[in-house]
Amino acid sequence: QAFPLPSLPRKQPTVLVACGPAQNGAIGLVCARHLRSFDYEPTIFYPKRSPDPLHRDLTTQCEKMDIPFLSYLPTEVQLINDAYNAVVDAVLGAEGEVGTEGTEPCAAILATLRHIRIPIVSLDVPSGWRAGPGDSGDIRPAVLVSLAAPKEPSRRFQGRWHFLAGRFLPEELRRKFGIRGPPYPGSDCLVAL
Length: 193
Prior knowledge:
Strand 1 (14-19), helix 1 (23-37) and strand 2 (41-45) form a beta-alpha-beta unit. This protein has helices at residues 23-37, 53-64, 77-83, 106-113, 171-177, and strands at residues 14-19, 41-45, 69-70, 86-90, 120-123, 143-147, 161-165, 191-192. Strands 3-2-1-4-5-6-7-8 form an eight-stranded mixed β-sheet, sandwiched between helices. Helix 1 (23-37) packs parallel to helix 2. It has one domain: Rossmann fold (3-Layer(aba) Sandwich). By secondary structure, the protein is an alpha/beta fold. One of its GO terms (molecular function) is NAD(P)HX epimerase activity. Residues 1-181 form the YjeF N-terminal domain.
């Protein structure tokens, strides 16, 4: 919804999906599948693949959909700016900050993402943003897609579009945690906040 195909600045509808090793990386793989289904041309950078069976299955599905995987992320930021219309940040999400256990390859990815000029779409929580109050991280996404419910760092989001994707949340959990959200229009799986 934020970047419809006719609005993209490049003729090819290319999108780079940067995936981390944990849950947010799996969400990035799902995102890449959806992008392909809607006629975008995703490319995945997934440097530290999880041995988890779900991650392996999602990776196989992406490969079977002919979604290419990069073996390295160009450190020359201009190559990314020139090749893609946007970058999906599925590196860390709400899972942690750079420097925490299991985030070793993430620091290099975030160092590159800090300098790109094309739009960033962060999934759940922009990578590197602290979970508690305080300053946000160096990544400045144009789009934030909160999953289930907006997390605390989303209060600091200053980008253009904030969406909620959480139609999958069972009613029991909504009641238990007092989660209220806007109604989803029609059969949409996300709603603009």
